[in-house]
Amino acid sequence: MLLLIAIILVILWALGLFAFSLGGLVHIALVLAVILIIVWLLKKIVRI
């Protein structure tokens, strides 16, 4: 679930690079996506 949300946020961030109307929200989405990916990876590592 977290991975899906992170992927969606990364896609939105990439789209925002070409549409500057989103402004700072795009960078916030990128930070959230990176945090979610890190949390997802940590959960996978802890399970192993």
TrEMBL record:
Keywords: Membrane, Transmembrane, Transmembrane helix
Keyword Transmembrane helix (UniProt): yes
Segments crossing the lipid bilayer: 24-42
Lineage top rank: taxon: Bacteria
Designated name of the protein: Lmo0937 family membrane protein
Organism: Dehalogenimonas alkenigignens
